[in-house]
Amino acid sequence: MKKLFAAVACGWALPTVVTPALADGPFSLKDTPVQVQAPTWSGVYFGVGAGYGHNHSKNNYRDSDGETSSRNESASGGIVSLIYGIDRQIGSRFVVGAFADISTSELNRGDFDIGNGMTVDRSWAIGARAGLLVNDRTLVYATAGYTQAHFSNEGWWDIDVGPTTLPGRGGQTFGGYFVGGGIERQLNESFYLRGEARYSDFSGKVTNSGSFEDVNYVDREVPSIVTVQAALVYKLDREKVLRPDPVTEDRGPKVITYSGIDAAHDSVAYYGGTIFGLSGDLYKNGVLLRTQGIIADYDYRAGEPIDRTVDADDRSLDVMLGYQWVFSNWSAAAYLGYEVRSVHLSPRDLDNDVRGGADGFKVAVELETESDGPFYGSLEGSYSTAFNSFFAEARAGYNFKRFIVGPASSVYSDEGDVATRVGAFTTIPFNLPWNGLPAKLTFDVGHQFVSSDSESRAGGEGIYGGSMLRIDF
What is the pTM of this model? Predict the structure, then answer.
């Protein structure tokens, strides 16, 4: 049977070669074994990872009086990453690729309650990997490249000289190389699960320097970081990138991505997220993986003893596992996961509880009606133990087919500082012109009310507005 196609090709020249196997009749295609195509590892991908990181640093001090010191310092905590890359399979055994990732971390040292702490709050890396397929679905690989990590100072780099404090730099970015390795397993046509360990070595930089009482001094840190992460990636081969499978009523999307901007008084936030349908269809019941990142910059007026405006850089990233229930006219989803968040204040405000690095558990729920009906409604909420943050939003609208419009209200809180919004929204569904994928563009505007001194990334009291783009594929 394995020589069927060769026999057909030259059967006209071999009329006498008839074996007893043909005694029961001619060949049938149904008797031919189905050739299963081996999975390919070539394609572009994106994904999310979560894990643990440990920083070890050598702190070196010297001054013009000849005093020197060198001490070991360390920080550790959680890390969440977004991953983007491209792979190429060479032959049947080898895979090479390039990638980039960005991470939010909460690697802390010191005591933030007394203004003597430091956080490794974010990093990025770009590199390459090469691996060997031990079988069709399992890859063992090595990786290397360039990386940068940002250290946010909350008093750790200050130098106390008697009653005087010599302030260190508010933050410092260290650059260097990384090496690592891991193992990756193909789960199905599009999803891959990987585990990776990485060592990053950074060049030293000055964290505090100056002159005090005619003595010149320099404080320098030389760090390294070890990380261990598990990640889920979604990969598309070249054909699917150029011509993705159409989304229909019978076949829902495997992935939903969204990104947007939110602005209020003294605050602007950029956010983005991705929802993976691990069961293969986001229009049906199944397991979900969701990740969301937020970059917020805001400022507020602090009272005594600072008595000035404080600038805040607020970064967060979460990864959550959930389940979705789809009914005839509405759907519901529930999530449980992990969030890493870092808030850097300049100048330091010890009266603000939302500062430094924090991580913790996060839960979320979502309810939404089907968009085909005349009336639309949605309700969502989340709570994170990182800075005791919660968010809730309700929307109700009328569906004019070409767009949905209606009122909306929401509430947000960080450690008791509450911001409440009342306004309106409109959602415009459409299809991307170049590949026909369904998408939605949402705008919202209204008025925000705040409690206390609005020490949260929601911003101050006044007009707010924003927009978000969602794409299903």
Answer: 0.79
